[in-house]
Amino acid sequence: MGSGVHSCTRSAPLQTRRAAAAYGGAITYVRRSTMARKLRIHVAGGLYHVILRGNNRQPIFHDDKDRYRLEDLIEEGSSRFHYQLLGYCWMGNHIHAAVQVGKVPLSSAIQNLSFRYAGYFNWRYQRVGHLFQGRFKAILIDSDSYLLQLVRYIHMNPVRAQLVDTPDAWAWSSHRAYVGEIAAPPWLDTAPVLARFSDRPQRARKAYRTFMGMPEKMMSPLDFERGNQKVPILGDELFAHRMERKAFRDAPAMEQFSAEEIVNAVCLAAGMSGEGICTSRRADALHARMAAAHLVLTRSDRNLTALARMMARDPSTLSRAAMRYEASEAAQEVAGRALAVLANARMHA
Fold first, then answer.
1. What predicted TM-score, i.e. pTM, was given to this entire model?
2. Is 314 exposed, middle or buried (0-12, 13-18, 19+ CB in 10 A)?
3. Taking the CB of the first residue and of the last residue of the chain, which one, N or C, has fewer CB atoms within 10 A?
4. Rounded Cα gap, residues 69 and 74, in angstroms
5. One biological-process term from Gene Ontology (predicted)?
6. Number of other residues whose CB lies within 10 A of the CB of residue 35
């Protein structure tokens, strides 16, 4: 094509193809419903309950090697994206984590983690397709009120699922690090929770054990998985209002990319060629165009007219695609994967 759009499977910039190859070469897309859902906000220093589920409840781990690989990626990502886990539990087909972020938005960290782990998983088991169910869940937690309950909720997951009788019997959670049976990995910080019990480590661990044996507070599990506000927040209205204002005030300046970089990354994220994304009438091509239009508007100094020339499409058509982006989970999934490709391409440039 003479529009400047590359055939993304062969002619994308070398650093972009290297970034994709670094994660197993497996970049997939997901089709999902177009129901609108709660918006996610980023608060620097915020505590989030993160949930990643396997698609159709399929396993995301087959053995301990898979779990160790996830933890290796978390160790790398926590250093790069400046986040820390305060608690975690790896179940068979989903994971729970209490994640405290820095200035880097949580979405950048979790998209990178899920992108890289899915690439490893697909490579190891010679499979294709999406591993995770839609985008991850993330509930912003009022740590003053709910930190202890959240960590207990996470650690009690295998008990509630009737896989074990006590959290001590589940090897793949942070519970054993809290009671001192194993050393905490560098990406796990137990201090904020244990400090709530005592400033003396032994007393704190003993009090934590007592706390874990107490009846759980009458709170629906859905509160920890959906929040109790109009946005995904678990806290009272005053906390929600403060966090929304803080998120607006602290919103970081986003890295910008050229329109050509965006289109090439979207091609890789959607597993399509440049010609396919421009001309196909299939649903996956429509989602890819929505993602490209949205990213050009929000992450580029170019406009939709320039994108329309590149893609040989009418600007008004791309404008409508951009407006439909917020209602399309499939388009947002493509955009998230494209941003991961772009970020890793810049890192390897």
1. 0.64
2. exposed
3. C
4. 9
5. DNA replication initiation
6. 8
**Considering only CA atoms, which of 105, 109, 121 is closest in space to residue 25?**
121
The sign one gets for the Cα dihedral 344, 133, 104, 175 is negative
Give the pLDDT score at 311.
85
pLDDT of amino acid 129? 80
How far apart CA 277 and CA 338 sit, in angstroms, is 14
pLDDT on residue 65: 97
- DSSP string of 292-323, one letter each residue: HHHHHHHH-SS-HHHHHHHHT--HHHHHHHHH
Tell me, what's the pLDDT at 91? 96
pLDDT at 95 (0 to 100)? 96
Domain boundaries, the chain: 14-27+254-348, 47-250
- Report the CATH architecture of 47-250: 2-Layer Sandwich (3.30)
When the candidates are 1.10.1750.10, 1.10.10.60, 1.20.120.50, 3.20.20.70, the CATH number that belongs to 14-27+254-348 is: 1.10.1750.10
**CA dist., res. 306 & res. 258, Å (int):** 11
SS3 280: coil
3-state SS, residue 282: coil
Q: Residue 178's pLDDT is what?
A: 97
Phi, psi of 157 (to 5 degrees): -55, -50
* Interatomic CA distance for residues 166 and 272, integer angstroms: 47
* CA separation for the pair 65, 343 (Å, rounded): 27
Residue 320's pLDDT is 83
User: Under 8 Å CB-to-CB from 24, ≥6 apart: which residues?
Assistant: 116, 118, 119, 120, 121, 122, 123
Tokens coding 113: 């983690």
SS3 assignment for 181-225: CCCCCCCECCHHHHCCCCCCHHHHHHHHHHHHHCCCCCCCHHHHH
Please name which of 261, 256, 323 lies closest in space to residue 290, comparing C-alpha atoms.
323
The low-confidence residues of the chain, meaning pLDDT below 70, are 1-40, 216-222, 225-231, 246-254, 301-302, 347-349
What pLDDT is recorded for position 348?
A: 66
- Determine the pLDDT at residue 54: 93
